[in-house]
Give the backbone structure.
Amino acid sequence: MFEEVVPVRARVPSKMAITPNMMKKTFVDAGVSLRRFAKKVWNFDFDSLVKGDVAGARFQVYFENKPLSFKVYRSDTGDGRHFRLSLDASLVGRTSLSLGDIMLFDTDPQGRAILTIERNSGSRANSLTPGKSSQLSNSKGTQALVFRTEGEILRHEAWERTRCKSAAKIVKQLEMQRVGRLRCHGCGTEPLKAYGVEVIEAHHRVPLSELKESRIPNPSDFDLLCPSCHRAIHRLVPPNLATLRAVFKRQRR
């Protein structure tokens, strides 16, 4: 068996660029890739951070060949599964971090942790150029929502976990054999009956991001959910069927 080689690099934020909300709250989700990076480069496990301790832990990187430290701490919300990278004045000031930017962590030939900033096209979209973007203001006259330029072609390189493409189809076939219909295990909706189309999706009971190694999935690893419940469950803590059903139970009271 070949040993999986995990690249020593991280992207923060993991799926987008720095937003106004992140700058306002002065933190960003550290993400899975930075967690792996910390374990590989600094031999530090984020799980050792104390929930709610804003002092957190500080790490050193090199930015433009000069040492720079930043802080990661554990959220005190929910079950403390979320880790935050502090966007404090020191980090923002030294890197000139701004809206639309992305932080990229890597190692140099000497094994040092380095930080580079990708000045994303999102920064260009923040300027309200006629024909490029427009905005809606709230009652106080400050910017609330912004339409940004879209349709640009950008090249991104990323590492991602593989998925078994046939898993959802197999799980749905087994469900049809067992009960003769496909309904949402969360809200109970039968999309085919309600909308005339079958849109049931397979939800991983254990997120792929939490797997320690690759595996062959089993039908018991999935719940079947409608698109709305599937999106909602990933925003709940913990993201499982019991939490989702508890929400519906509270609403019925």
